[in-house]
Structure formats: structure tokens, C-alpha cells
Design a protein that fits this description.
The protein has 159 residues and is of the alpha+beta class. It is 32% helix and 33% strand. The longest helix has 15 residues.
């Protein structure tokens, strides 16, 4: 199997769309965006996301996207947020999420940014990964999305 890890570019917008839609179908409660919302995004919006200023990292096995994660820095912020972490069921247990998380944390640290992320309550595997990598709860909880009974917990990387 050929494994490639890369940062998505504008040329990869359709790959980003396809993997994002797979992620939302597989894990609908892990993301703020819903599958119907994402399916309604225009190609131009996917292109804007792919060419954004912050990285979206993806693992490809034989050319097929099987894991992803991104970072986002709000304007004028000293903190970046890691988002969109997902690994396809058939690729879980191979260390892809840990590798992507490390890459994204390193990107943040190279820019002297603090690092935070959100994890949905009940997503114990993801939370364990984040805690093992040094993330600690901030005490902040908020709804996953409007109308959802699920909440997300904010975690912060402690250096």
C-alpha cells in the first residue's frame, strides 16, 4: 500500500469535499456542520476551504483520502484551533490521527500560537488521543450545533 501525507491545496478541493462528506456520513456527531449542509456547499466554497491560509492535512492510501485534520486561526488571535479530525473506519488503528495531530500542533507552534480543539461528549477515542498528546480541559462546554442535545468540550494543549 502506498501511503502519502500531504497538505491540501486548491487543486485538491474535490478530494477535500469527498473525504469531508465521507467523514460526515460516518461520524455525524463529530462535526458542527451536518451532511446535508456540506452537500449543499458549492464547488467554489470547497475550493476556498482547500486554498485557505491554514493547513488541512490528509492521509492518502493508494490515492484515496482516509484521514484528515485542519487548523484554523481566527483573525488577530494568538490561538489556533484544530478541527475536522477524522479517520476512515478501515484505516483506524494505523496512527494516522496521531500523526496528523502532531503535524498540526507543530504548525501552530512554529507560529507561536496556542492550540485548542473541541471534542464531542461521548467521543472517548478522540478525547483519549488528545489527552495523550497533552491537551487538558478548559472547562468550556458548548452545544455541538444549534438544536443539538450534544455538547463539545474545549481542550487546550498544555506545553
Amino acid at each position: 500500500m502506498n501511503v502519502e501525507v500531504r497538505t491540501i491545496t486548491a487543486d485538491d478541493w474535490s478530494l477535500l469535499r469527498d473525504v469531508s462528506l465521507r467523514a460526515l456520513a460516518d461520524s455525524p456527531d463529530a462535526f458542527r456542520t451536518t451532511l446535508p449542509e456540506a452537500k449543499a456547499f458549492t464547488d467554489d466554497l470547497w475550493l476556498q476551504r482547500a486554498e485557505g491560509p491554514s493547513p488541512i492535512r490528509m492521509v492518502l492510501e493508494d490515492g484515496r483520502g482516509v484521514a484528515m485534520g485542519g487548523a484554523f486561526t481566527p483573525p488577530d488571535s494568538t490561538v489556533a484551533y484544530i478541527w475536522g479530525m477524522w479517520t476512515a473506519p478501515e484505516a483506524r488503528g494505523r496512527g494516522y490521527a496521531a500523526g496528523l495531530l502532531t503535524d498540526l500542533v507543530n504548525w501552530c507552534h512554529a507560529r507561536d500560537l496556542g492550540v485548542r480543539l473541541h471534542v464531542t461528549e461521548g467521543n472517548d477515542a478522540a478525547r483519549r488521543l488528545y489527552v495523550v498528546h497533552g491537551f487538558k480541559p478548559t472547562g468550556v462546554w458548548e452545544p455541538l450545533r444549534e438544536g443539538s442535545t450534544l455538547r463539545v468540550e474545549e481542550l487546550q494543549l498544555v506545553k
